[in-house]
Amino acid sequence: MSLLEIRNLDLRIHSFEILKSVHLTVRPGEVVAVTGESGSGKSMTALAVMRLLPDTATHTGSIILDDTELLDLSEAEMCRVRGAAVGMVFQEPMTALNPVKTIGDQVMETILVHRAMPPDKAEERAREVLTRVGLPPEKFPLSRYPHELSGGQRQRVVIAMAIALRPKLLIADEPTTALDVTTQAQILDLLKGLVQEYGMGLLIITHDLAVVSDIADKITVMRHGEVVESGPTRQLFAEMRHPYTRMLFEASGHKVNLPPAPAPEPLLSVDNVVRDYPLPRHLFRPQAYHRAVDHVSFALHRGERLGLVGESGCGKSTLTRAILGLEQVQSGKIMLDGEPVFSGAKPNLAVRRKMQVVFQDPFGSFNPRHRVDRLITEPFHLLDAAPQGSERQDRIAEMLSAVGLSPDDAGKYIHEFSGGQRQRIAIARALIIRPELILFDEAVSALDVSVRAQILDLLAELCDAYHLTYLFISHDLSVVRTVTDRVLVMRSGQIVEQGETETVFSDPQHEYTRKLIAAAPVLPEIGKTVA
Amino acid sequence: MSRNLILGGFLSSLVLLAAILSFFWTPYDHATLNIPAKLQPPGVEHWFGTDHFGRDIFSMIMVGARTSIAVALIAVGIGMGLGVPLGLAAAARRGSWLDELIMRGNDLVFAFPSLVIAILITAVFGAGAVNAIIAIGIFNIPVFARVARGAALSLWQREFILAARVAGKGAARISAEHILPNIANLLIVQGTIQFSLGILAEAGLSYVGLGAQPPTPSWGRMLADAQTMVSFAPHLALIPGLAIIVTVLGLNLMGDGLRDWLDPRIRVARA
Amino acid sequence: QTNITIAMQLEPPHLDPTSAAAQAIDSVVYTNIFEGLTRFMGDGSVVPGLAESWEISEDGTQYTFALREGVTFHDGSSMDAEDVKFSLDRALAEDSANAQKALFSGIDTVEVLDPQTVKIMLKEPDGNFLFNMAWGDAVIVAPESIDDIKTNPVGTGAYTFSEWVQGDRIELTRNPNYWGDQPSIENATFKFISDPTAAFAAVMAEDVDVFTGFPAPENLPQFEADPRFQVLVGSTEGETILSTNNKQAPFDDPKVRQAMAHAIDRQAIIDGAMFGYGTPIGTHFAPHNPAYVDLTGQSAFDPEKAKALLAEAGHADGFETTLHLPPPSYARRGGEIIAAQLAEVGIKAEIINVEWAQWLETVFKGKNFGLTIVSHTEPMDIGIYARPDYYFQYDNPEFQSLMEELSKTTDPDGRTALLQDAQRIIADDYVNGFLFQLAAITVAKAGVQGLWENAPTAATDLTGVSWSE
Amino acid sequence: MLRYSLKRLLSLIVSLAVASVVIFAVIEVAPGDPASFMLGVNAQEDTLAALRSELGLDQPKIQRYFDWIGGMLTGDFGTSYTYRTPVAQMIADRLWVSLPLALYALTLSTLIAFPAGIYAAARRGKPGDAAVMGATQLGVAIPNFWFAMMLVLIFAINLRWFGAGGFAGWDKGVWPALHSLTLPAIALALPQAAILARVMRSSLLDILGEDFMRTARAKGLSRRQALWRHGVRNALIPVLTILGLQFSFLLAGSIIIEQVFYLPGLGRLVFQAISSRDLIVVESVVMLLVFAVIVVNFLVDLAYALVDPRLRNRT
Ligand SMILES: Nc1ncnc2c1ncn2[C@@H]1O[C@H](COP(=O)(O)OP(=O)(O)OP(=O)(O)O)[C@@H](O)[C@H]1O
Ligand SMILES: Nc1ncnc2c1ncn2[C@@H]1O[C@H](COP(=O)(O)OP(=O)(O)OP(=O)(O)O)[C@@H](O)[C@H]1O
Ligand SMILES: [Mg+2]
Ligand SMILES: [Mg+2]
């Protein structure tokens, strides 16, 4: 007896075929995960169930919820289904809540809009569900506004809204993607608990195979709007019949072979660095500060690949900016090759030309109005004698080839490239002046697993060819584990643990490191069953 | 290109063409009085009729377009020329005393009811096109400063600016090389809007007698002259009014159309 | 119906007619609130006012006025010879703020003979004295009311002041203790509407019953065609002239002034600026005055002659000058037309629109102008041409002695002859461009009777006004 | 919230201080001697001097600035040069016309703009939207004084539904007063309403694309419910800014409109005062207008905090 049954669902937007005969079933008490890379149609499938597709979308096929054909319902009838029979949780907790209404109002609204109970009862129920999702009203009164909560707490409010009427089916579209690993673990636990307790069906969408393997009873893998494989989790992981599934799996756990690091020779030294941000001024109080980096010290050797992990907001990017000399530190010293990055109150340009950086966002890192040749030669500005004419052309061609693009791409604009290609261009830009040190700030976090695997391979190749030294910053432990020799673990502005990467991961010393590693979902080993 | 852009562009270029053409040709001399032929309704001889002095209204409208456009254009030039650098500087030094000073200065100018000040300026320094331009121009400065600053601030958060800083570029260079080209669209759109507001403001000032002085024809003054005669010669008020409406409408439609057309989000989606 | 709403363009700055030049004050208070020894009638004649009768001595230097019995001020105090003496002495005083001090300059002393009789001694005979005493600047005021006369005028007239809403209206109420006949209007409201459009709209919408000095002659045909309204067109004392700075080059050359006179088409100005309302004048004198001489032919419109004269004066290519225009539409519109007409003969006059305050500052006091257009509305004001320091700076000793002689002459025929000579002298000298006599235009509802048709002085005499049934 | 308000208040005071200096300086350089205007053409030099000293015009500039400011703070705006009555009283009388007019127009424009903007946003891309947007484009392009002329022509002169101008006065009752303010208010309000409707629409469209609107739909709210319960209040934030700015436009716009309808308001007062060089009145009225605008913007800032809880504990 299935709760939700999607059969032969075709979906078009204008002339684009978004979904092609999608099949999917969810039974009560079952967790079904839909996975696949970006743009494969996961969200569209979920929205089709909610009938919240863009106005221009047309669909055929059938979506049956509890014997009701949803595609036949009128809009008014559908309104009665949404929120009552099906609840939905979205990816971005920061924006999923109305900023001008209290959380209590927003949770109660689900109840009141369906006239399920009188207001006083509804309030009682709101307290109840908020308590259930871990926000007891004693600590988190109903009168709180969303901006007074953290990301994880907001996601709990969204879940509370979705389950307030105990829907039979809960749809969660990437519910943890925007959250830290530790928070992700808590939210996943919460969802699992709710399924067990209420006997709901849960349709969870995620691109993270590790999360999938952790939570799902059944998995559906999608690609280009089609279901390529589906089945019970154990079986699917054991068999991996479709090559795409296999590719996904391999890319998710991708390991690269770094060339061995040369003998230690100091390059960068960070000594007791402190970075304070002034908090907004209070009228009658002395200026207060937020300490984003708190007495951090470490050394980086020539040819070494150093990792930096830690949760969101722990100060990773701040530290990067301090090393780059973009911001002045309040105390401490940063020396590169024996010279301070900041001399007096001015950034030291002589030092800066030895460093480059690759940022996270493949879309925001480039001026959309410049061509690739101009984009990647921007660091030439740091050189006293920048290459000109044919020498310049050669360097551009060399760099583009080195990162796996064609020299012909030099004349294109950035919007003509995919995310992965953009990240390659970013690396080319960083490499073009042959810096002694490259900083990667979440350089692969925004990429699909398959693309990420390629970029990581590229990094390994470049290490071979150019003997790179880099600081690799990421919140993704598995990535850091494979591309670094040594790792620093950061928490609230402090380095809590550092050491050889393998040692730290296999035998974490600090309690926080242990917590991080435990919270990170892991892929099952191929061919073995999942617990 | 959207319908707005085409229609707006058409109306605006119509007015612009009339203004340019008026340098070489008008059906009659716009300044020649012919009192016996006064107050003729629109007809074959005078397409838009004649005014209370028997002047040809069609010719006056053509030459008046010149005045409106010149005043509004120069006023926008003043606003852009001073406002944009100020806005860029404020954004580049966000949170500094300079930013604070520029923004407070802007607030202050905004706080003055612009028309009152325009009246005050022209009352003190004399009525006339030049003072009207200055009065309108001053109020364009904070508008452009604000738009430039707002857009530049969000750009300064973008990683490509960070990349440029890593490449050792200073604030002035980054503003010129990265920020300005990326906010140019916005400035153009704002420019068209301010341009149309300038036309309205000029008309308003001329209407109360503080804009261009006779014999320079001006739509606003034509309306003022027509005031007492609307009841028996409505064309005197209708035609300059419609000229203003068509121009402003054209510019606004063009601004809207440009906004859509130049919006990088939509452009990327199209590419 | 006993209430009436009368609109006019200008609001008085305050309500004391004896300390300001503003005609708007007289328009409200003259004969209604304040009265003088003599008074003007609608036809311009001078009749007894508070003085019932008078005797003039043989040599013409002593006037003995017999005051009316039982006249009281609005505050209840009685009006007697002491009040007359006080009023005249106040106007005469060193520090007097009276705008027309010249009216009183001939007075030597004022003597109270008894409460009802007052004797005025002149320094020399003055044929104009009774006329002078009829001006609004010569009304009789109560000494005890002087301090706040500007906002609370207390006079002897048929109406008492009741309210002033600044920027909007002034209200008068009938004075039950008036010495003369009770007028038929009980409550009168004076409304101030400066904008010509608003003026038209207000009359059309019947928001006002009467509009005196209606500022938009272009709208009169509509009122004439509408049975709801009547239009009264009379004449004023306003000679509208193109004032010329006689001391500034090239206007110091009479040839140039003559050329300008011939370059101007008066009828075009009257038609274009006043929509036909106004009488062409060829000199500075009111055409309705019996002594008027029509000299318009002397400066007939003749652009060719104008060009020839300019060439003779050495300005074959014309010259540039300024034309300052105060706010009234006769000036603004007339100015545009004159500028165009002057341009035809090669004179480029740059139009400078000014407010009255600026006009007074730059033109009248600063004498920093080339040309300006203004209407001189004081009655019988040809005397200004005898003042070399007057803003147009005409300095002709012959004319000055003529005026002196005039003030000593009491015999009517002699006066007329002298006045006619005076008119000719200034016309021969082309002192200013003489344009037209401003028409007095009043628009009223059809049922209103007894309004002044002409405006021999600024006044809205309510005493004769009534509604027909 | 308190701290936020205090900070805004501080900058309000600074703005007012700077504004007062600017206004005073501009007025100081204005040509035209008030004394000679008051006394007319035949005034004697000694009388003029006496009047100047009576008016305080012979004092040093700094002294006069502080006298002016000090007076204003205590409610004494000085005495009008021309009318010889307290300026404060004159302004108060005029305020009773201008302020109701501005509020009336503001109310009208809000009443027209909000539904129109919301309607258009809800029907984005449909004929209803196109119609509203077309109308607003036109509305924005129409000069309000021209519109006023047309209103007078049609409704006062031809149809005679309204008086062509003038103000009945509140003492004649609320209804006649409002009646005489109706045409002017419409003339002021419609062009502003067009702008406001456009802002409302675009702001609402931005909000409609927000994630929380989708969340609301997922809860089972219909499009309409989501629009009203979650969209409108969020969309109000940019609209408030415009509303604040509009108040100053309305006050300024009323200067011209008061001319057309000969309403005895602040606008007329300022024009009259400028032309008669009643500088003390000009000074005070302009300062008052600036004060009103600055205070309204201050109130708008406070209103933000009411609408947007994120701002409440900001400093
Ligand atoms: N409003 C829309 N109009 C047109 N096409 C759309 C729209 N929304 C999504 N698409 C397209 O539909 C396809 C499926 O999108 P969908 O959002 O379902 O992908 P997804 O699997 O959820 O990806 P992600 O992991 O990035 O969220 C994509 O190719 C996308 O470009
Ligand atoms: N310009 C700034 N002004 C004030 N506070 C800041 C500023 N930049 C960062 N912070 C604060 O400093 C702390 C560290 O921020 P940082 O960006 O370095 O974190 P992160 O580790 O890079 O996080 P993420 O993984 O989310 O990028 C955060 O609490 C952040 O709010
Ligand atoms: Mg998705
Ligand atoms: Mg970061």
From TrEMBL, chain A:
CDD domains the UniProt entry points to: ABC_NikE_OppD_transporters
One of the record's GO molecular function terms: ATP binding
Membrane topology: Peripheral membrane protein
Organism: Lutimaribacter marinistellae
Family membership noted in the UniProt record: Belongs to the ABC transporter superfamily.
Keyword Transport annotated: yes
Keywords: ATP-binding, Nucleotide-binding, Transport
Predominant cellular place of this UniProt entry's protein: membrane
Pfam families: ABC_tran, oligo_HPY
Gene3D superfamilies, A to Z: P-loop containing nucleotide triphosphate hydrolases
Record domain ABC transporter: where: 4-249, 268-517
ATP-binding found in the keyword field: yes
Name of this chain's protein: ABC transporter ATP-binding protein
Domain of life: Bacteria
Leader peptide range in chain numbering: none
Localization of this protein: Cell inner membrane
UniProtKB/TrEMBL annotation, chain B:
UniProt membrane topology term: Multi-pass membrane protein
Highest taxon of source: Bacteria
Residue intervals of the ABC transmembrane type-1 domain: 65-255
InterPro entries on file: BP-dependent_transpt_permease, MetI-like, MetI-like_sf
Keywords carried by this UniProt record: Cell membrane, Membrane, Transmembrane, Transmembrane helix, Transport
Subcellular location(s) of the protein: Cell membrane
One Pfam family from the record: BPD_transp_1
Transmembrane segments: 6-25, 69-92, 112-139, 232-255
Main localization of the protein described in the UniProt heading: membrane
Family of the protein in this entry: Belongs to the binding-protein-dependent transport system permease family.
Protein's name according to its UniProt entry: ABC transporter permease
Organism: Lutimaribacter marinistellae
From TrEMBL, chain D:
Matches recorded under SUPFAM superfamilies: MetI-like
Protein's cellular compartments: Cell membrane
Statement: the UniProt record of this protein carries the keyword Transmembrane helix: yes
The entry's keywords: Cell membrane, Membrane, Transmembrane, Transmembrane helix, Transport
Entry membrane topology: Multi-pass membrane protein
Annotated TM spans: 101-122, 134-157, 177-197, 235-257, 285-307
Superkingdom of the organism of origin: Bacteria
PROSITE patterns reported in the protein's UniProt record: ABC_TM1 (PS50928)
Predominant location category: membrane
Residue ranges constituting the ABC transmembrane type-1 domain according to the UniProt record: 95-300
Coiled coil (UniProt feature): none
Annotated family: Belongs to the binding-protein-dependent transport system permease family.
Protein name: ABC transporter permease
Organism: Lutimaribacter marinistellae
Organism placement in taxonomy: Bacteria, Pseudomonadati, Pseudomonadota, Alphaproteobacteria, Rhodobacterales
